[in-house]
Fold UPF0397 protein CEY02_18540.
Amino acid sequence: MAGKQLSTKTVVAIGIGAAVFVILGRFVSIPTGIPNTQIETSYAFLALMAVLFGPIAGALIGFIGHLIKDATTFGPWWSWIIVSGVVGLLIGFISNRLKVEEGDFGWKKITLFNAVQAGAQALGWFVIAPVLDIVIYAEPANKVFVQGIVAGISNIITVGVLGTIIIAAYAKTRSKSGSLSKETS
């Protein structure tokens, strides 16, 4: 970050975002039938925060939120904690292109958002998480690739549906650029 500091607003967003990630991960997830693999609503929220606050906030919310969630349940599972940070980071990279703060989240931006989030999730859950599970924990490849594929597909769908809906709803609360004009008398 060479000389750049996070704004107070972003630091607060990271703290609140991580806390909400924990709550959603602990209490608003649906078992898939695959061991230690749930359908997680927390990634839709992570996507919103990454889009609003950028890649550093997205990475920290995903990493810290997942770390605390794991620490308060069965203990930290570092491979998946790292991937949560990577997913938040990668989605955050498009925050400047989406500019949902300007009130515009039309079809082109929805398509861009979903292409990026699906790519980020696929890279994270189909590749990075299983490889780290094998390297860090010596887990069997067939087990971790099944878990990664199920987690990745469920996260892509959850963020694609729920994430798109909450980002679109948020964008509608913002004034569109140029929507206010000066009245002349």
